[in-house]
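Table S7 (text form). Paired inputs.
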Amino acid sequence: MADDGVAICIVTWHSAGDLPGCFEAIAALAHRPLEVIVVDNDSDDRSVELARAFDAVPTTVVAWPQNRGFAAGMNEAFRRTVAPWLLTLNADARPAPDYLDRLLPHLRAGAAVATGRLVRPATEDGVVRLDACGMRLLSAWRHLDRGSGEIDQGQYAQAERVFGATGAASLFARRALADVSTGDAFFDEDFHSFREDAELCFRLQSRDWDVVYEPTARCEHRRTVLPERRATLPAAVNYHSLKNRYLLRLYHQTASNLLRTLIPTSMRDVLALGWVMTRERTSLPAYTWLWRHRRRLWARRRWLAERRTTSVNPWFERDALPLRVAPSGDSS
């Protein structure tokens, strides 16, 4: 692929209802060259058929006989391309035609990741709510999408550095991913699904890479997994969500941020354990999984600690920081 090629990486699982709109948006993207890699996690609908029929840009389809999760699917998609720029895109996301053109200048200026202004589909009365304007980090080790659920009134109007970016529609520089990864496993496959994007951003921040939010890059995203809907989510979703919140801490908590976040984090741990014991016992195996794999997980922690060049501590409770390098030029 050309030096400026973008590979759009999509992991599907029962996504047939979303794929036509997603492919229509991809075909309308102004940037070229493009390629699409779809990895399907054993869908029992028409996801694979629809992906194989898409021919607006060169497309590779990988159909797995089992659900190996979002992280593994994305890693497989990344392996199938040599493009320097990689867009992770959910099937329920609809990037605007200039989405890539708005994000690419930040990566050319040295950022690791650029993400746009994600909005939810308009309601029947025309109200548009924000979905994600980058990611922020709380002292309780929660990572939240900035602006999630707020009515879009033009807030978050500045391009700026943020802690993280959602995997729903973010553009990554391959050189940055290679710097923070082991081999070609860019996302940590132990996460399976959920929080894997935040964990990758922890690694990038600890190596002093920038994650940039660009408000002029717009993308519609019909998000269905939200914290307030936890009680109605499938058991497997909640299991991975619980397991992964501890994985984040195991990998990235240090002595300094342990002291800084001890009280809010401990309170959250108590509440989480109480919820699981009384309302969500299907998630209890998360604790046994962590214990069973403790030696391998601690080895991963040691590797991350050896690679760390800067602290993520300034990001706790901080919304954003100014850009270090202003993008220049046009990506078209």
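Next pair, protein 2 of 2.
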Amino acid sequence: MVNGARGTLGRILGSTMALALLGVSPALVEGQADRSALVTSLDSAAHAWVGQPGVAGISVAVVQGGDTLLMGGYGFVDLEWEVATPRDGSATYETGSITKQFTSAAIMQLVEQGLIDLDADFTEYLDFDTQGRSVPVRRLLDHTSGIRSYTEMSALGELAPFKLPRDTLVRLVEDVPFDFEPGTAMIYNNSAYYFLGLIIEKISGQSYEDYLAEYIFGPVGMADSYYCSESAIRGQRAHGYDAGPDGLQRKGYLDHTWPFAAGSVCSSVGDMIAWNQALHGGRIVSRDSYRAMTRPAPLVDGTPTRYAMGLGVDAPGGRRIIAHGGGINGFVSDGRYYPDEELTIVVLQNSTGASVGMLGGALADLVLGPLAEPESLTYSGDLEEFAGTYSGPARGNPMTVVVSVEDGSLTLQPSQGPAMHPGYRGDLTWSQGALKLTFVRESGVINALRVDQGGGHYVLSRTGG
């Protein structure tokens, strides 16, 4: 419902495959210097994207430095009336978990005013039973609190159509056991950002909606951005569609009481470009706050992560990227910024039938050139020591991974999804695409597997083998 970082930094398909799917030859874009040819390629890729099943319409913006390479709309904002997506990129969409960076920025503004302490237990600002644990505010921001995410609870389906007091959700989450001890792992957590929204309201004395309007949307000039509503009439608003067994259908109903500070911002690609330029240009928060928002903190044992505060941060192939995606009933989104190349890409889509993260990555490859796949190394030890079953908490349901050795390499079969054949990268780490898999050896024995998805860092204990 409020999906967010799954695949945010992920190159789910390699860049060559993504470009081929869009009908663009990678050979044509390597070293591409001619601006007009580049613009044509970007436009062609966007057109090809809306030509596939499961896509109603998209708005796309590609801006490098001060040069707008692409700002346009494709497909339809309304399928029933066949209303074309505005070509100027002015259509507004529900952005889902892209909302989290706005919530994070609002929290950091209040930190700068001395009204919130990131190291204070969040229960100083919100009534919540932490079951005897200490949970600093910063652990809400980077998904390491261990609190159960409400979007993974069946009760949300019952609440979704209704307007109820927001502490209804707080009390529901409060009664559920923690998924892990704070700071020891990372599971993408919409409860945490819901709580952060309540903290913003309490400390500022304003509604979350009014705070964003006054301190973020207004100063940045984001005239097409607002708190989403399931009932208000808005000009230029795209209608959302979900993927169904027989194709696209009208999106399922969701009252915006519940996505709240985790996923209720509506915006346009033009406004999102303005936001990115303001945030990364130092006009929203201080330098120290920006550093905190874009520099992932390690887990308590020193293990690095790839998620900071409302933003995923990575450097695949040495190419730095700060990014986040979103998914909510009827809509998916992808926003990415490459700081070294000053490249910002935003894709907003009003259907859930295809992941726009792949399109965002393909557009980046058109501008910057595809990244080379990392070289696989040869493990010199005995691979059989890794064979076995590993289990532990993960997003949605507990994860189990069975590791085996086939033809001299590791094969990993997760409890959900296809088998993986990762390449060895050194030490005890293997990877496949954006997924990093690191085994843990203690006292000479492999006893755990760390599954780093960028938007999640799961610690699976060895349970067999």
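The CA atoms of residues 144 and 186 lie 5 Å apart.
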